[in-house]
Amino acid sequence: VDPNEPLYCTCQSVAHGEMVACDDSDCPYEWFHYACVGLTKAPKGQWYCSECALKKKRQKRH
């Protein structure tokens, strides 16, 4: 195991299997494992993780 390998996703694990990128450029995680976010196939169009989707929703209210 390479200690310098970057960690991704809310599970803070290395990249493996199918992964999806959050379309929020400020996302703290950036990449997510399909299994961790409940996906089985690539989403169509833009995709935001639950944290960034909630942040966007809050910003729209203000």
Features:
62 residues, two-stranded antiparallel sheet, PHD-type domain-containing protein, alpha+beta
Question: Strand order within the widest sheet?
Answer: 1-2
Terminal Cα separation, in Å?
45 Å
For the record, the CATH architecture stands as: 2-Layer Sandwich
Mean pLDDT, all residues = 94
Q: Return the string of H and E elements.
A: EEHH
Low-pLDDT residue spans: none
Overall domain count: 1
SSE arrangement:
Elements: E1 19-21, E2 31-33, H1 34-37, H2 50-61
Antiparallel strand pairs: 1-2
Organism: Catenaria anguillulae PL171
Binding site for Zn(2+) 2: 22, 27, 49, 52
Subcellular location: Nucleus
Give the gist of this structure:
With 62 residues, this protein is an alpha+beta fold. It has a single domain, classed as 2-Layer Sandwich (Herpes Virus-1). The protein is 26% helix and 10% strand.
Characterise this structure.
The protein is built from two helices and two strands. It is globular. The longest helix is centred in the last third of the chain and has 12 residues, at 50-61. It is of the alpha+beta class and 62 residues long. It has a two-stranded antiparallel ribbon. It has one domain: Herpes Virus-1 (2-Layer Sandwich), CATH 3.30.40.10. The termini are far apart. The mean pLDDT is 94.
